[in-house]
Amino acid sequence: MCPSRGVLEHVTSRWGVLVLAALLERSYRFSELRRTIGGVSEKMLAQTLRTLERDGFVHRDAKPVIPPRVDYSLTPLGTEAAEQVWALARWTERQVDTVQAAREAYDEART
């Protein structure tokens, strides 16, 4: 398996895209990020953040205070990836009607 395929899977995964998009706006604490994204379980968000941190896209800043405070932000590499993924997401939103029409035409031709 090509190494770039694994990176692409992390960046374009369902939650990876949403995490990168949210962090493109600003840094977040874990619970803030979970509320912002919506629909993601705590376990899945933690796993996604660890994966993106390991790949060098996300920076985890744990502050030694009580209660514990951890902030997540994008690294320069993460910002670049987020901008690319977010551009694709915006393009996809603009093309939904065209894709839906193509699907309907395809389905109609098959019946």
Notes on the structure:
It contains six helices and three strands, in the order H-H-E-H-H-E-E-H-H. It is an alpha+beta fold. Strands 1-3-2 form a three-stranded antiparallel beta sheet. The chain is elongated and about 65 Å long. It starts with a helix and ends with a helix.
- Roughly how many Å is the radius of gyration? 17 Å
Write the H/E string, N to C.
HHEHHEEHH
Question: How large is the share of residues in beta strands?
Answer: 5-15%
Spatially, the strands of the biggest sheet line up as 1-3-2
Q: Could you give the distance between the termini?
A: 38 Å
What's the main sheet like? 3 strands, antiparallel
What labels describe this entry?
elongated, 3-stranded antiparallel beta sheet, 69% helix, 6 helices, alpha+beta, 111 residues, 13% strand
Summarize the structure.
The protein is an alpha+beta fold and 111 residues long. The protein has helices at residues 3-12, 14-25, 30-37, 42-54, 76-94, 96-110; strands at 28-29, 58-63, 69-74.
Write the layout of secondary structure elements.
Layout: H1 3-12, H2 14-25, E1 28-29, H3 30-37, H4 42-54, E2 58-63, E3 69-74, H5 76-94, H6 96-110
Antiparallel strand pairs: 1-3, 2-3
